[in-house]
Amino acid sequence: MAADDELWFDFVSAESYLAFRRADLEPPASRPKPCPVSLRGLFEATGTSGLPFTAPAPPAKARYLELAQARAAAIEGVALTAPLGHPLDTSLALRVALVGHDAWPVARALFDAYWLGRALDQPQVIARVLDEGGFDGHALLEAAQRERNANELAARTSAAVETGLFDLPTTIHRREGRHELAVGFTPAPQPNLRSGGAAKSVLFAATKAIDFYFDYASPFAYLAATQLPRVIAHTGAEVTLRPLLLGGLFRSLGTANVPLFAMSDAKRQYQLQHLTRAAAEWQVPFRFATRFPMNTVKALRLTTLAPPERQLELALAIFTAFWADDRDISSDEVLLDVVEKTGVDQALLGKLDDSATKQRLREATDAASALGIFGVPTIIYGSQPFWGQDNIELVARLLGAATNATAR
User: Are 29 and 91 members of one domain?
Assistant: First the structure.
């Protein structure tokens, strides 16, 4: 990070705590500016919902997010013990962080206290935590309780919404009059580090096998898929492709058929920008398809019919046709062109409407649902799920760490 970056957070957010602890390892001059803001206020203002205030639908997603949070904490070596009654009202603690002259250590003391299970909704507890940290708890608490500081917290929330924030933590990178948001927290394990407890079961999984669940309809799955050849080359991963019909999965779970359309404006805009940034970072072609959402049934059936050793090449060609070349992959003509270019047996195209082929895709989708998969891309590694295109990097690091450990 750079000193002119900003880290927006709320003490009630576990991911905010992990992001803060990561930044705390940086030299003081390199840390981002701490920017406390109310997560509840942000959710209310943007029409967003999620942990810790509400459990996301479907239940499988809520379970996954809790698992991912615990896994990230274990990998980072950070203990998370939420206070009784979590999520607590942290507005007073946030106002204390606003008035502190040395904002970073004040925020650190309050963050550590909350995630050691202390009740930061109680003024006397806040004062005691500050005193223990070497601050004047009474003076800071008194200043935080003044009306103008309550108004300052509300103004911060409004400013966050205007900047495009919808969830925490969010890092804002400000450069030459422009700003770029990075939402959420992704653990960055390194070989030989933090290998105890829950992290050890992932870092040293006794397998190189990963299952990659996807539908061509997802731009996130496309970006993750483009990185599979690199992961295979660098880690020796054994990848099994698991095509599924995302619309069928969503119907079985009772979720929106096109999640991107159901997001708040701020979240949808961020996701679209994030896709473009990820494509640029990975140096892969990408443009949002003009035919989105796309009927991908035929393309998925074709993939299930292809020999396993040809599936990845075929899948990447279909993904590229849709998300790079903006072609209609529901078209027989386009699929024939893809098949010709990849050398897959053209006779497979004549089997796309066979009942056995249809059943194969239905069974694959049902099997994914039974595993608790609720979206794509999802990677299963070491019996653990990793959802979202960003997690391809985490899985690659974990595979690399496991390979290094085995070599020793």
Answer: yes
